[in-house]
Design a protein that fits this description.
single chain, 11% strand
Length: 244
């Protein structure tokens, strides 16, 4: 049984479940993975704590919730939030089952695809905490971060638009991507699971590595199944417009 420590944010948790379901080979309900989901949306903001702008420690919610997942029967845990992996080591030390690491899995995917230099689009907490750089060390993969101006644009897309369920400006997003390309990035990684929703809505191509997809693939394999090769993404006419 898989446990998902979610709510960080809620829509990312919904989409993570959708990706797992879409990528799991199944001919009937019973072929899918048994999953229990904790979606505590009231978990304190991870970035605010990491940057010292809040004294509310997210671990005070994350640790007991992870333990509840285990008590319910979870044998492995996935956390569909990049910024939350700042707390990974302390959380893993408190829980008696394996916890998959979205950042490690994403960097491994980039390496396997022959990428040596990628741009990181993520929350300010993830960027400044250096968690991606940590997992790049020793893998000969270079993580490039935006300058202050472009990071502010990413922040606004995540917090001012997606998390508020407001329309995202494609022009602002693509301007950041163009800047990362100008720095020699072979790929950009959507290193915030809110940005994964952009890949779905804008139907982004291979230049964009989605950390949520990387975690989903690793999760399915960890649960003893072989992921199908491609996600069948609905057209804009088929889905409720979260982003327009």
């Amino acid at each position: 049984m898989l446990g998902i420590l979610g709510g960080l944010g809620p829509m990312s948790t919904v989409y993570f479940y959708e990706i797992i379901t879409a990528l799991t080979p199944a001919s009937c309900d019973q072929d899918h993975i048994d999953i229990v989901i904790s979606s505590r949306a009231t978990t304190p903001d991870r970035t605010e704590y990491i940057l010292g702008r809040s004294d509310k420690n997210p671990l005070d919610c994350m640790i007991p919730d992870a333990k509840r997942l285990v008590a319910f029967g979870a044998q492995i845990i996935a956390i569909p939030c990049n910024t939350a992996h700042y707390f990974y080591d302390r959380l893993a030390a408190e829980v008696d089952v394996p916890i998959l690491n979205i950042i490690e899995e994403s960097v491994k995917t980039l390496k396997q695809n022959g990428v040596s230099r990628f741009g990181l689009l993520a929350t300010e907490g993830t960027v400044k905490s250096g968690t991606y750089q940590k997992y790049c060390a020793g893998r000969k993969v270079e993580c490039v971060i935006p300058d202050e101006i472009h990071q502010k644009r990413v922040n606004d897309i995540i917090y001012g638009q997606i998390k508020q369920n407001r329309p995202v400006s494609p022009e602002s997003f693509y301007e950041v991507v163009h800047y990362m390309r100008s720095l020699g990035c072979e790929r950009v990684i959507l290193g915030c699971t809110e940005l994964s929703l952009l890949k779905k809505e804008l139907r982004l191509g291979e230049f964009y590595t989605d950390s949520l997809e990387c975690l989903a693939v690793s999760t399915i394999r960890a649960c003893g199944k072989t992921p199908v090769k491609q996600i069948q993404i609905p057209t804009s006419a088929d889905i409720k417009p979260v982003l327009t």
